[in-house]
Specification:
Radius of gyration: 18 Å
Number of domains: 1
CATH class: Alpha Beta
CATH topology: Glycerol-3-phosphate (1)-acyltransferase
Number of helices: 7
Shape: globular
Strand order of the largest sheet: 1-7-6-2-5-3-4
Number of strands: 7
Distance between the termini: 43 Å
C-alpha cells in the first residue's frame, strides 16, 4: 500500500529534479518472477529503477541502512531486504528467493557496492546464484547519470539528467562446470557484459542526440557539442572478470 502511494510522488520528484527518462520498458515481463540486475553508482539507483519500472520492485540493501531510525523502517516497508556483505548471507538469499518464487520482481547490483559513474566493476557470484536458483527472467539495467546526481561521498544530491535503460531478458545457462560457484560466476559475468552493452548503446545514443546539428527556428543550423564516453574498468577491456 505504501509503495503504491509513494511511487507516483517519487516519480514526479525524479522527473523534476533529475529529468528521469526510461528506455526499453517494453522488455520488462509484466508478470512472473523477474530479476533486475543493474550497475550501481548512487544511493538513488533503487528509487530510480523502481520509478522507471511498471512493476513493483523489491531490492536488497546493506544491513547498516536498516539501523537508521525511521529510514530503516521506511525502506523495509517499501520492499527492501537487508543484506550483510561480510561473507555469505544465507538469510538474505532465502528472502530474495522467496520474492522470486512468489512471482515478484527483485533488484540486485551484481557489483555489490557503489562505484564511479560509467565504470563497471567485476560482478559477485551471488547475483548469478539468484538467477539460477530463482528461475527468474533476468533483465539487465543501466542507469546513466545517477553517479553525477549523487556520487559517493557527497552529502546532498544535485540536479543531473538520469536515464534508466532496460535491456532484453537474458538467457540464463548454467551447469557447464563441475563447480557450482564457477557457474554462478559465469552467469554474473554475462550479466555485467549485458549491462556494459546497454551502457555503450546509451552513450552512443546520447552522443548522437547532442552532436547532431539542430535546426534553429530561423532555419539556421546550430553548432553541435560532442559528449565523451564513459570509462571502462581495465578488467573489462579484454572481457575478463578476474
Amino acid at each position: 500500500m505504501l509503495y503504491a502511494i509513494l511511487k507516483p510522488l517519487v516519480v514526479v520528484v525524479m522527473r523534476l529534479f533529475f529529468g528521469l527518462r526510461s528506455r526499453g520498458v517494453e522488455h520488462i515481463p509484466r508478470e512472473g518472477p523477474v530479476l533486475f540486475v543493474a550497475n550501481h553508482a548512487s544511493v538513488l539507483d533503487p528509487p530510480l529503477i523502481g520509478g522507471a519500472s511498471p512493476r513493483k520492485v523489491g531490492f536488497l540493501a546493506k544491513a547498516e541502512l536498516f539501523e537508521i531510525p525511521v529510514f530503516g523502517g521506511l525502506i523495509r516497508r517499501l520492499g527492501a531486504q537487508p543484506l550483510r556483505r561480510e561473507g555469505a548471507d544465507a538469510g538474505a538469499l532465502r528472502t530474495a528467493l522467496r520474492v522470486l518464487k512468489n512471482g515478484g520482481a527483485l533488484l540486485v547490483f551484481p557489483e555489490g557496492t557503489r562505484g564511479e559513474e560509467g565504470v563497471l566493476r567485476p560482478a559477485k557470484a551471488g547475483a548469478g546464484m539468484l538467477a539460477v536458483l530463482g528461475a527468474a527472467r533476468v533483465v539487465p539495467v543501466y542507469v546513466s547519470g545517477s553517479g553525477r546526481a549523487w556520487p559517493r561521498g557527497r552529502r546532498f544530491p544535485r540536479p543531473a539528467r538520469v536515464t534508466v535503460t532496460f535491456g532484453p531478458p537474458l538467457p540464463v545457462v548454467a551447469g557447464g562446470s563441475a563447480n557450482r560457484k564457477d557457474d554462478y560466476e559465469a552467469v554474473s559475468r554475462a550479466m555485467m557484459a549485458a549491462i556494459a552493452g546497454l551502457r555503450d548503446s546509451a552513450s552512443s545514443t546520447d552522443s548522437r542526440a547532442i552532436s547532431e546539428p539542430a535546426i534553429a527556428r530561423d532555419g539556421r543550423r546550430a553548432v553541435g557539442v560532442g559528449l565523451g564516453g564513459a570509462r571502462t574498468s581495465p578488467k573489462y577491456i579484454d572481457g575478463r572478470n578476474r
